[in-house]
């Protein structure tokens, strides 16, 4: 739910629209844009109070506090084991790159762009569009002065960092270990293939999804917010190995989810039902709405 929808739903007010897709790197910013931006923060105090009331009424204030702390401290935590390692492979149009050296160029340019974006606090694609990263013409042995002559590198932001792009391309050409064409496997196959490859895991996933749907409806929290769907899939797929390492299935499920950075409120809600789904046993840890 975006800001405008929350303001309308909780405060009964509508925010002016019209400049969300504008190029905010433009200077000076037009007065109409400044007014548009000011409206985004003018009602935040009132909105915070309204959200706090809703959370208190639903008994979710502590849940929200845990989520805020999780977001606040994300830079100090290592990424979960299930996190995708090669994020640069999400570059739009990467399917057009068919050789390892070309993928090395994509990787190095993406990484350089990401560092600049974080330092300047600017969206990466404002600094260098994906179309420039995958453009095959920059893989020739050219100097930085020639690089900016290419249309995809000719923008003001691209010219500003021409030396950075040249260094990234040089590193790609000299890399002793360019990336493989196919992304290394990281996790289970798509669930649609489970019935054939691992039917027991498919049954566990069906049971887990059904249990999570029931809890989601009861506590009024989307299933994907109860626990990471990717984490649930991995748990169901790997359960045989996980269960063999611990005689206590509840402890095994909790440890696995905790390693995947599930928060305490999530563990309290989903560990009992996921354990039951994985083992096929009655949900002995579940409680009624009155906590009994």
UniProtKB/TrEMBL annotation:
> What protein am I looking at?
Ribonuclease D
Q: Name one GO molecular function term.
A: nucleotide binding
Q: Which organism is it from?
A: Mycobacterium tuberculosis str. Haarlem/NITR202
Q: Which SMART domains match?
A: HRDC (SM00341)
Q: Which InterPro entries match?
A: 3'-5'_exonuclease_dom (IPR002562), Exo_C (IPR041605), HRDC-like_sf (IPR010997), HRDC_dom (IPR002121), HRDC_dom_sf (IPR044876), RNase_D-like (IPR051086), RNaseH-like_sf (IPR012337), RNaseH_sf (IPR036397)
Domain HRDC, residue spans: 99-179
Q: Which domain of life is it from?
A: Bacteria
Where are its TM segments located? none
- Tell me the Gene3D superfamilies matching this sequence: HRDC domain, Ribonuclease H-like superfamily/Ribonuclease H
Q: Source taxonomy lineage? A: Bacteria, Bacillati, Actinomycetota, Actinomycetes, Mycobacteriales
Q: Alphabetically, which GO biological process terms does the record hold?
A: nucleobase-containing compound metabolic process
Signal sequence region: none
């Amino acid at each position: 739910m975006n800001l405008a929808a929350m303001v309308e739903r909780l405060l009964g007010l509508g925010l002016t629209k019209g400049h969300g897709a504008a190029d905010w790197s433009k200077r000076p910013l037009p007065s109409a844009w400044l007014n548009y931006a000011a409206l985004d923060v003018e009602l935040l105090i009132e909105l915070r109070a309204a959200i706090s009331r809703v959370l208190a009424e639903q008994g979710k204030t502590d849940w929200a506090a845990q989520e805020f702390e999780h977001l606040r401290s994300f830079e100090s935590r290592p990424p979960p084991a299930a996190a995708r390692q090669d994020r640069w492979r999400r570059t739009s149009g990467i399917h057009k790159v068919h050789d390892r050296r070309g993928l090395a160029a994509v990787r190095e340019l993406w990484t350089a762009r990401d560092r600049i974006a974080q330092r300047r606090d600017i969206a990466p694609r404002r600094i260098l569009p994906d179309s420039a990263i995958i453009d095959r013409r920059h893989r020739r042995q050219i100097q930085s002065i020639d690089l900016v002559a290419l249309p995809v590198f000719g923008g003001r932001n691209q010219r500003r960092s021409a030396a950075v792009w040249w260094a990234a391309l040089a590193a790609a050409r000299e890399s002793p270990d360019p990336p493989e064409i196919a992304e290394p496997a990281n996790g289970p196959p798509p669930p649609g293939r489970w019935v054939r490859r691992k039917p027991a895991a498919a049954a566990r996933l069906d049971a887990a999804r059904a249990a999570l749907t029931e809890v989601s409806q009861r506590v009024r929290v989307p299933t994907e917010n109860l626990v990471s769907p990717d984490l649930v899939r991995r748990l169901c797929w790997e359960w045989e190995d996980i269960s063999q390492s611990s005689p206590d299935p509840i402890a095994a499920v909790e440890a696995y989810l905790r390693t995947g950075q599930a928060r305490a409120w999530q563990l309290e809600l989903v560990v009992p039902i996921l354990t039951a789904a994985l083992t096929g046993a009655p949900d002995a840890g579940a409680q009624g709405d009155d906590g009994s």
